[in-house]
Amino acid sequence: MMANSFEKARFNMVEQQIRPWEVLDPRVLSLMESLPREHYVPQSYRDLAYADIEVPIGQGQKMMFPRIEAKLMQALAIQPTDKVLEVGTGSGYLTACLANLAQEVVSIDFHNEFTEQAKEKLGQQGIRNFTLINGDALADPLEEGPFDAIAVTGSLPTSQQAEIFRQQLNVGGRLFVVIGTAPVMECMLITRHADKIFQEESILETELAPLINAPAPVVFEF
């Protein structure tokens, strides 16, 4: 696919996938129409970079649907002064998006392969305001915190399992996380209003693969 074809595909993605899902934030729309998603997609899937699918990236992982990435960014309402944590670097595409919106992005991934590939791809795009970490985000809070916004790119079975991320939020900070088990999951926006006061808001229903090392859902037997 030639460069002008990617530009057209990028435009169509925004108009046909993003806007219909009520993503109207001009910063998000402009960013997704200009940032080359094909740069972060595996070579064998480049022609599908802007398709309404979860693009496989290896290690059994997939990129989120573009519309979910857009919803995430709009919900977090990232400001130019924000410090953002991304849980699940993956392809590095969302990392690049967040870096364009925020002052600083810290991104952690379980797979060192993703961390190394994302570092190279982000550098090639001239993006510098990021720190990439190889590790398990569910193990311990990161010393780089607290954060103004946290984007979790894998699901958790219950809201209680998101506690480790809630506690890494600044007051006024926002957490985007998908809660539940298939086929019933919700994108949640959790806002920290005070030390022990959090507000939860349901954004939409969706399905997302579990975060690596996420606790297994409790199964009741009768």
TrEMBL record:
Family annotation (SUPFAM superfamilies): S-adenosyl-L-methionine-dependent methyltransferases (SSF53335)
Designated name of the protein: Protein-L-isoaspartate O-methyltransferase
Originating species: Candidatus Thiodiazotropha endolucinida
Pfam families recorded: PCMT
Keywords: Methyltransferase, S-adenosyl-L-methionine, Transferase
GO molecular function: protein-L-isoaspartate (D-aspartate) O-methyltransferase activity; rRNA (adenine-N6,N6-)-dimethyltransferase activity
InterPro entries for this protein: PCMT (IPR000682), rRNA_Ade_methylase_Trfase_N (IPR020598), SAM-dependent_MTases_sf (IPR029063)
GO cellular component: cytoplasm
Organism classification: Bacteria, Pseudomonadati, Pseudomonadota, Gammaproteobacteria, Chromatiales
